[in-house]
Amino acid sequence: MLSTLPIVADSKFLSNAVWIDLVNPSSTEIAAFETAFEFRVPNQDELSEIETTSRLRVEHNALYMTAPLILATDDEPWIPAPTGFVLSKTVLLTVRATGSAVFDAVRKELSDERFEPARAYVCILEELVDHMADLLEATSRDLDEASHVIFRHDNLRRLSRETALLRQLLLRTGRTSERMARINYALVCLDRMAKFTTDRGREWVAQNQVSRLQSISADIASLLQYTEGVVNRIQLLQDAATGIINVAQNEVMKILTVASVAGIPPVLIAGIYGMNFKNMPELNWAWGYLFALALIVVTTIIPLLWFKWKDWI
User: Fold this and answer.
1) pTM for the whole thing?
2) Is 4 helix (H, G, I), strand (E, B) or coil?
3) How far is Cα 93 from Cα 98, in angstroms, rounded to an integer?
4) First-to-last C-alpha distance (Å) of the chain
5) Nearest alpha carbon to residue 75 among 108, 104, 101, 105
6) What does pLDDT average to in each consecutive run of 10 residues of the chain (313 residues)?
7) For the chain, the helix, strand and coil percentages under 3-state DSSP, each to the nearest 5
8) Contact 78, 58 (CB under 8 A)
9) Domain segments of the chain as ranges
10) Contact, 264 vs 307, CB < 8 A?
């Protein structure tokens, strides 16, 4: 039977425990556990180690494992939460700095039955893998929305209004890429933990739990392949959004170029008739002013028609 109680220095109470979950433990709780079971509780620095030899090791017939888990829900910041596991034949210890719905779900699942430490450990890994899969599914849906915006048919006709939105999508996909890197690392760590437990705890971990650990490794392998596909898709969307923004900028430069070229002849004509020389016959024409205006209009229209004929505008 699982219950949520403060850890006290009562060796009789602790000796009957199968799974002890320490959330941001105090020094008193750590000392109580170490006294009752003679296992050391990993400190925060050890939980944050990145070397494999530091994350997976054996001490006093217990498996010490750590992983940077993503315990947040979809609408929360995906900040890695270093989590430690101490698994022995008699007890499972989990230690972390923050609460998690994943561990709460496992606690609820096991609340009405007797279980061994390895079973609780395997249930936690299975729930974590399911949680990672849910995060990946949510990310995939987010990419579907981004893809719809980037590749919709009217994008090229509304480039000026879409540029700001595309920039926002670049930020979203960039954040998603960072999330994928964190999920990928967390999955790799969970896979190493499952294989490490199968290898080092085979003598006292039940065969059915070993089979479940092997299934967890297989599920993680498929999720890693899915993550790789998502990362490739993110790169495609980022390249597409960047390309569309470049097209928008090129369109603006093309319009400015056409306008500047079309404006050269009328400026030249206006400059000639603005010199006010005495021997300019047009100054004495009754229709000289209108002639000059008509000439300016014609020399403006002709380049525009030529650009249109070349399909440049």
Assistant:
1) 0.74
2) coil
3) 15
4) 76
5) 101
6) 47 72 87 84 84 84 91 75 91 88 88 84 94 88 79 56 72 83 91 93 88 94 92 86 77 80 85 77 79 86 82 71
7) 65, 10, 25
8) no
9) 11-251, 263-309
10) no
